[in-house]
Amino acid sequence: MSKRKTPAETPLQSLEPERPPARVLWIYALGQLGWSLAAYGVSNLLIYFYMPPETGQPIFPPFVFQGAVLGVFTLIGILSAAGRFFDAVIDPLVANWSDRSKAPGGKRRWFLARGAVPFALFATLVFYPLNAAESAGNFAWMAFCLLFYYFFFAFYVIPYTALIPELGHSPQDRMKISTLISITWALGFIAGNSAYALQSYFEAQGQNSVQAFQTAQMLLNGAALVFMLIPGLFLNENRYARQAPSDHRLRHALRVVLGNPNFRTFLASDLMYWLALNFIQLGIGFYVTLLFGLDKSYAFVFSLVSFLCSFAFYAPVLWLERRLGKRRLMLSAFWLFIGLFIVVGGSRSLPFPKEVVLYVLGVVAAGPLAVFGILPNALIGDLVEQEEKSSGQQLAGMFFGVRAFVMKVGISLANLLFPSLLLLGRSADNPAGVQLTTVMAVVFSLAGWQFFRKFQEGRPTV
Fold first, then answer.
1. For residue 6, pLDDT beyond 50
2. Per CATH, which fold does 20-452 belong to?
């Protein structure tokens, strides 16, 4: 079989493992649906459950202390941020374990098969506080569940994303894979957002708000587990993935990937993107109820409209990427996000029906969601291949692990800052804190745009 050569003519790996057919790519992509759904609750509903909007009648009883800690922080914010930071720290470790794995059934698949069950389990248990009222025990239990949740989140997700450049044998294949997992990620996000509507449904069946919310989470995470297990059990990694043995230790692997100037530029921009995105995701329940004055179930309506419409943008995004390139398309997407956050922040003053504004915003959001859903993974896949050709080092896991580290630092900071801003006002009479979160999202988006302007598409590694 022919061999791929490095510049020093050292064999890197077999050039032609089988190119995966569509059915194999769908087996892989369904895992994205699963982990997107399993991650939704902790990522987007933890503050909603433990520090709910003040709408006159409390949605949930207080399970942990609701006031300020150290003057500007909250317990839920500190714990959420600490969990994300722990997750970020272990991402490069898991990436290195995965890169160096020699598991006979597939070095990435080994992690998927063993990480799915505990990932889904702790994603559910975190919403089952030990006591029905505010207590230190509830805080300790939440900390325990989040510690293991974030460990198994990294244990599953980092090896999973490392398969993108390994199953994608060309830039076109990687764009196809990125498109598929963008679709399944969106489906998982939509399904996770249905927690609001499911809560209302189970409340109508006689359950109280806590029971209804917990039932919704149990059902959603059960479905997530099934999807996460599909690639772990059925993906033939050895047959289709372009892989080579790696014995690089963590420090060396980090030095290689962070030595890529284009990758560093991408990481700075990506950090700002995740800060902005998580402000809007954490805030959707607050924006709908306090700024738009609508029922909480409209949070699901917004997400459903935006993500369903984003599917219609996938074909135009792929067409524009071939003509404009990834850089120009992502810069444009940042500006669309900026406009979206500005309108949300000023929505109370708009003279239009709030339902109409919500639908319009959902359609507008679809464009940047499609761009950021498809292009970043394909872009990193291109950088991975450039590194292989330049240095002969196969470090897909580490590239995606470092990206995940930066992503989770952004999410961690968002989880720390967002509830602190809510202390300035999270009621219908005083929504100042909620409105300030949209201002911060604009600032983050502008910073992300500025950083990504320095990205040089097609630049080789040095």
1. no
2. Growth Hormone; Chain: A; (1.20.1250)
